[in-house]
């Protein structure tokens, strides 16, 4: 059938070209033209395939590297990767920290959630942080039971130079997953936003979920 009411499809026209050569008829176009058509079609098909974003691999785990050029890799090793970028406002910063960790045996996903919550509460210095929200729940990633935490807190710090006290706000979404082939090896993938209270980003939690959900398990 014709395309657009009159133009033959390349495959139909090419079949006619071959038939003309077999029967002695005159071809519609020179062979070089048909080759050019075929190459153009192949190149267009390749160009239409979306590019896969680069991933950072870490001892059995990987996650997508942010595509924005503002991100800077501060540390990168098989066991620890840290990236960061400045925000739009003064004092604002976004960070991604991925750490390969040792995990104790967990008989169930509930035990993993309890362990992660206890670990995070212990790590937060009450003299420095005032915690508003610390919620940990189960999250399934590629069939593996993981734990995801959401933390909202204020950080008591001082300004550079003057040493004046100031309160910053920090939101962090963290995904902790054991490796399916070795549950004693885990990944702690955290995405954080640090800012002045007036610079709250309502889009942060959605962006954070996309970042941590890019986690994948790689062969050990």
Description:
- With 220 residues, this protein is α+β, with helices and mostly antiparallel strands.
- The protein is built from 4 helices and 10 strands.
- The protein has helices at 10-23, 31-48, 109-123, 204-212; strands at residues 55-58, 61-64, 72-76, 80-86, 93-102, 129-141, 144-158, 165-179, 182-195, 216-217.
- It starts with 9 loop residues before the first helix and ends with a strand.
- Residues 1-15 and 21-29 have low confidence and may be disordered.
Q: What is the topological layout?
A:
Layout: H1 10-23, H2 31-48, E1 55-58, E2 61-64, E3 72-76, E4 80-86, E5 93-102, H3 109-123, E6 129-141, E7 144-158, E8 165-179, E9 182-195, H4 204-212, E10 216-217
Antiparallel strand pairs: 1-2, 2-10, 3-4, 4-5, 5-9, 6-7, 7-8, 8-9
């Amino acid at each position: 059938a014709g395309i657009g009411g009159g133009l033959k499809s390349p495959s139909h026209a090419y079949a006619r070209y071959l038939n003309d050569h077999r029967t002695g008829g005159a071809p519609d176009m020179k062979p070089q033209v048909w080759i050019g058509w075929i190459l153009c079609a192949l190149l267009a098909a390749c160009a239409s395939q979306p590019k896969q974003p680069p991933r950072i691999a870490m001892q059995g785990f990987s996650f997508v590297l942010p595509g924005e050029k503002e991100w800077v890799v501060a540390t990168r090793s098989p066991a620890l990767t840290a990236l960061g970028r400045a925000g739009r406002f003064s004092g604002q910063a976004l960070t991604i920290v991925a750490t390969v960790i040792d995990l104790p045996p967990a008989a169930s996903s509930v035990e993993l959630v309890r362990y992660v919550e206890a670990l995070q509460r212990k790590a937060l210095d009450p003299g420095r942080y005032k915690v508003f929200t610390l919620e940990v729940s189960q999250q399934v990633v590629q069939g593996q039971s993981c734990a995801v935490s959401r933390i909202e807190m204020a950080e008591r710090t001082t300004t550079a130079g003057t040493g004046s006290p100031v309160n910053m706000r920090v939101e962090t979404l963290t995904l902790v997953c054991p490796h399916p082939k070795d549950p004693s090896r885990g990944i702690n993938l955290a995405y954080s936003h640090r800012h002045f209270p007036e610079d709250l980003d309502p889009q942060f939690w959605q962006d954070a979920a996309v970042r941590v959900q890019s986690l994948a398990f790689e062969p050990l």
